[in-house]
Amino acid sequence: MNISPLRLLVNRTIRTLCPALLLLPVACSESGLTIRVIDPLTNVLPGIVCPPAGDDTVRVARGENAVLQFVISADDSVAARNPVLRSLKTKQGASLDKAVLGWVRNVQASHAYVPAAPDALQSPSGEYPDPILTDTTVSIAAGGTALLWLDIPIPADAEAGLYEGSVRISGLKNGKRIVADRQFTIQVYPVTLPEQSLLVTNWYFPDKFSFMNGNESVEDDSPAYWECMRQLVETASAYGQNVWLLYETGTPVPTADGKGLTFDFSRMDKTIEFLLRHADVRLIEANHFAKRSRNGWTDPFWANVPVPDGKGSYVYQRLPHDDPRVQRYIAAYFPALQEHLRSRMIDDGSGRSWLDIYTQHIADEPLNENKTSWEGLARQVKQAAPDIRIIEAYRSSSYDPALIDILVPQLDEFVWEIYRTMPAGHSCWFYTCMYPRGNFANRYVTLPLIKTRLLHWINYKYDSPGYLHWGFNAWGANGDPFGDVSAPANDWPGGDSHIVYPGYRKLYPSIRLAAMRDGIRDYDLLKMVEARDSIRAQAFVNAIIFDFNRYDT
């Protein structure tokens, strides 16, 4: 059978929890359309023929998603309409009726970043499959192909068993309506995944909402803003995101004498309340309040703080950490923030306050060269508000555990010995972005999809409970988010800046986002095996992840 090593191990992982197994290979050719099932971890490149999956039965636990990928070939030109999922039932009558069905579109990735991955995909056309368009039709040229994606969430209360169903593709061929069906089967095991345990954040950018609004600007706190936010957080949450960047802070309010500041938290509260209503929220990560002084990579960090102007208002200034105005601001703001967060309760019966889910960024990616200024700011925050946890994408070769609670090194620096043992109450995640490159797992469109899924097997192997990526929807580096998804001017590999695509007041997922979500759920499957047999769980992951940058793909 043509099944990837990862798929084999996922199947074995589920069978560890339930030994049933059924194989049902299926083929189909109808009305001049040939529909083949392709392993969903296969990147189907234009002009390259992919072998069909040797086993058409998808095996899943309850709480996972069953994913199928179809290649449709036409012997004559066809205008294909929206595909339809037909009845998907067991012989006992249980059914699955929710699905994402969409045509996979190709995008360009022109930037030849270095060092390249030894297994980087080589597309003859420079195009790579990625966005899943859920509301469109396609035209298939004579002898051409189209790529169809089917993604079926399996409810936690789904009945176990073999579900049989089909997708139907209708269209026009030489002016006549044609219909083609493709059967498939899904084996749902009597195994239910627990609530997601891995912490995952993708940084999102409300300043890019114009791409979801017909290229018209979206005013903060407007109805259009909140509709775009709803679409974004619900999409991200459905694919495994449960940690959310917070841009809003307490708004400074000058005191009556004009010499000091108090703080209004109403705008910040509105966003937190919105997230708690519309998303799975395990943590809030408040945005950085300091940046490099002159934007040079090794420059010291300066804080952007409001300074009373003596006229009843204030101005923002970027100042060094030892400036008295920075010290006064931190000493005033963070105690007020801490007590405000402590006073707001999460409405879930847990007795937790917002402070229990709040973390604070200081400044992004401190290095050995500017760590002193980062520590100067972090120390002031900890002194002012000792119960606020600090999280940071961190790149220095040493750290003070008194100043940081959640370290997030880059994957190629996650190998450092300082991250092997964490003090009590601390944790170590990892992140990827435009780096690391070479053979490291990442989520570029030019990498095999299995390497995106393997990111979270790395989380499991190295006992890392969280993952961070900077680019959820940083569209526009080259104008069209559906055009060239790399950015040579920024040295961004293809797909680094975004893993979703904008429609009008909606988002389209990508095959990379689906692979990432499935890796997140693999993490939980491995945790379930570990609860029964930790040696076997580690054997599963060791058969795939040899080291931080060596994998069996």
- Unreliable spans are 18-30
Kindly name the structural category.
Answer: alpha/beta
Relative strand content: 25-35%
Strand order of the largest sheet: 1-2-4-10-7-8
Mean pLDDT across all amino acids: 93
Describe, in plain words, how this protein is organized in 3D:
The protein is α/β, with parallel strands linked by helices. It has 9 helices and 30 strands. The chain has helices spanning 5-17, 223-238, 266-278, 324-343, 371-384, 449-453, 455-461, 511-532, 534-542, and strands spanning 29-30, 33-38, 57-62, 65-74, 78-80, 84-85, 100-108, 127-133, 138-140, 145-153, 161-173, 176-192, 199-202, 243-246, 251-254, 261-264, 283-286, 290-292, 301-308, 314-320, 358-360, 389-393, 406-408, 427-428, 430-432, 466-469, 501-503, 506-508, 545-547, 550-551. The strands form 8 sheets. Strands 1-2-4-10-7-8 form a 6-stranded antiparallel sheet, covered by helices on one side. Strands 3, 5, 6, 9, 11 and 12 form a 6-stranded mixed sheet that branches. The protein has a 6-stranded parallel sheet with strand order 14-17-21-22-23-24, covered by helices on one side. A hairpin with a 6-residue loop joins β15 and β16. α1 packs across α8 and α8 packs antiparallel against α9 (534-542). The longest helix is centred in the last third of the chain and has 22 residues, at 511-532. It is globular. The model is unreliable at 18-30 (pLDDT under 50).
